[in-house]
Design a protein that fits this description.
four-stranded parallel beta sheet
Length: 143
């Protein structure tokens, strides 16, 4: 007995737009909800080898909440590849400089590490304030 892989047709994939207000939401919990919608796991047509997910708009990224003292202790580390090229930045500093980047990095860590994950991340739109230019898509609030 062989199992067949379910593959939805392009016509069966329906893309919707959702809007999320990040005010006083915990960073990790919000990121996991967003990643689930971007992957399409909330739909009955989900297939792990296809992008069946929806678009997500995140508003008020600068007002995200974190537990404990993560604003001072959580570090974002990168290296340029050159000697002494290690750069570190705390969560609080990154929130002050680029609040959209904090949510983008959290969601990116929860998506697949391949071209499919890159394609899913393109459907994420993050804004520091409460205004967005996607009114024409008629986004619905994410439950």
């Amino acid at each position: 007995m062989t199992a067949k892989t379910y593959t939805p047709r392009e016509a069966d994939i329906e893309r919707r737009w959702y809007v999320v207000d990040a005010t006083d939401e915990t960073l990790g919990r919000l990121a996991s909800r967003i990643a689930r919608v971007l992957e399409g796991k909330h739909k009955p047509t989900y297939a792990p080898h296809m992008d069946t997910g929806d678009h997500v708009i995140v508003l008020n990224a600068s007002r995200i909440a974190v537990t404990s003292n993560k604003r001072e202790t959580k570090l974002y580390i990168r290296h340029s590849g050159y000697p002494a090229g290690l750069k570190q930045e705390t969560l609080g500093h990154l929130l002050a400089r680029r609040p959209e980047e904090v949510i983008r990095r959290a969601v990116k860590g929860m998506l697949p590490r391949n071209t499919l994950g890159v394609q899913m991340l393109r459907k994420l739109k993050i804004y520091a304030g409460s205004e967005h230019p996607h009114q024409a898509q008629k986004p619905e609030p994410l439950a």
